[in-house]
Task: structure prediction
Amino acid sequence: MANKKVGEFDLIERYFKRPARQSVLGVGDDCALIQPTPGTQLAISSDMLVQGRHFFADVDPCTLGHKALAVNLSDLAACGAKPLAFTLALALPHVDEIWLAAFSKGLFALADAHGCELIGGDTTQGPLNICITVFGEVPVVNGRTQALLRSGAKTGDDLYVSGTLGDARLALDVLRGTVSLPPEVFAQARARLETPTPRVALGLALRGVASAAIDVSDGLLGDLGHVLIASGVGAVIDTQIATQLIAARAYLTRANGQFDTPNGPQLPRQTDLQTCLAYVLAGGDDYELAFTASPGQRDAVQAAARASNTPVTRIGQIETSPGLRLMDAQGHAVANTFKSFDHFA
Amino acid sequence: MANKKVGEFDLIERYFKRPARQSVLGVGDDCALIQPTPGTQLAISSDMLVQGRHFFADVDPCTLGHKALAVNLSDLAACGAKPLAFTLALALPHVDEIWLAAFSKGLFALADAHGCELIGGDTTQGPLNICITVFGEVPVVNGRTQALLRSGAKTGDDLYVSGTLGDARLALDVLRGTVSLPPEVFAQARARLETPTPRVALGLALRGVASAAIDVSDGLLGDLGHVLIASGVGAVIDTQIATQLIAARAYLTRANGQFDTPNGPQLPRQTDLQTCLAYVLAGGDDYELAFTASPGQRDAVQAAARASNTPVTRIGQIETSPGLRLMDAQGHAVANTFKSFDHFA
Result:
């Protein structure tokens, strides 16, 4: 093969074909065939990653392979679905075997960690574009789906988020050159940007516990907005708690006055706490879960957090009045000047 | 809305959100949920279309919407799967509402004709790229899939193709300026290129009749090669019959000596019949079915063709000896100088 031009079929064969396991028929026919477990539904999500929009041209292809699948697994997590399989459609400017080897390594490492099998796809020449469609299983009990939906939040429910928020966007700002950080702070934030952890285990543990869930990909405020609209409710967020959600907070507040904050209107410089809040509420690329649960489920939520080894923080409450309100520790309203990320805004 | 910038969520809402029907939960949550009919498998296929590679920048967006779904439905057809639903991931350089309205019109017209529902997806900014993942159902009877696979061809089986082959590539050559045709001949060929008919009805009718099937997207020789390898067999094709499969044949042979043939090495000019043969065997973009069936199924194949209102032609036979051979009407070997289409070759 050494002197042979690498064609489409070789690419699939060499980098992406693996023996089929749980699915009935994997890569290599016109369609893949999946037979869902009786009594389950299939949860399906598609995400497309475009160079220059979702990642830089010089990103490590191994982390890119991880992230391309992670953002899709995050959607399964938000539905409480167990990962099953995925398809990969890949447009490449040219065949770069070093790139492909690293990309597939990162991709399969995460896939294997979640027992999620590549069952089909497409490769073509074009501007670098990665489109993954992921499949998971959700039980149906007595005719009712156990999927976590956006539409189930109820007045009085607690509002939670998992993990940390804002560090991915902080790293992005460093890469864009609008912010500078010490190397060790940057390294931690960059890992959040480039190798996010899809909260699959938490999503599974929250089945029957959470009333609604979404994954935070475009910024908490924007994504939470979808839950509020779908559920016909509003919410209040405690900004005192929220500011503590960014892992780099200790540095950001310690560096009081010396930290170069971003200049965009969505990140106004007032205080360092305000900067933290901007990252937390409107950062994007977090891939944490935002979810709601009735106050009667507080112990169950903590148990789910422990079982999945995922920190969760209660940051607010669902209210009847539509819209989202911010409040400080003293219960005073905080102006909401933060703007969510929109791929076309 | 008139003065509002159209963002990602508006795009989905305005052009692609429709009430969910057969699927349990459509566009608008982290995942779509599908509950396959008990006793069925889900057939899944993904295809990505890239500007400049699969279509020209100035293509009519309505026909592009049709084709983007058609090439995916063609994969379901090749498996004998009944279309159910699809996801759409779309990268657009900018929001062009006229383009989007036309694209979604063409897309949904074909989707509705096949009862195939859009259940989710993604929109982002980037070089124009359309990635569709399609879902269909295939029955499982006594633990055996009824899907038409590539691996079922057996020595002695007849080899068939549906419809016509080569006209799409002929139209492409006209658009590229390497061939000229009279307007009415071009219009017919162009329809084959831009609005191919996925052979879904034929695929369904061939369940239990055909022994193997594939859709012809990269040229008959290349695609048939996948069937032969997967089935561990070879085949012979009657070139006399094959030359008749291009709809423009009457014109191509009538215009003897005046027809400007393409210059590429894969389309050598020897005779007009040879030109027809090159288009038929190595054209690509046909979206017809190539399939095999035991000679005992000839009546059943004809019945399937009638039931699905799709012409089929018997063009050869499966043989034990691996590889693909071409033969003329007198039974003499014809040199195979044709090359299949490869997105990276």
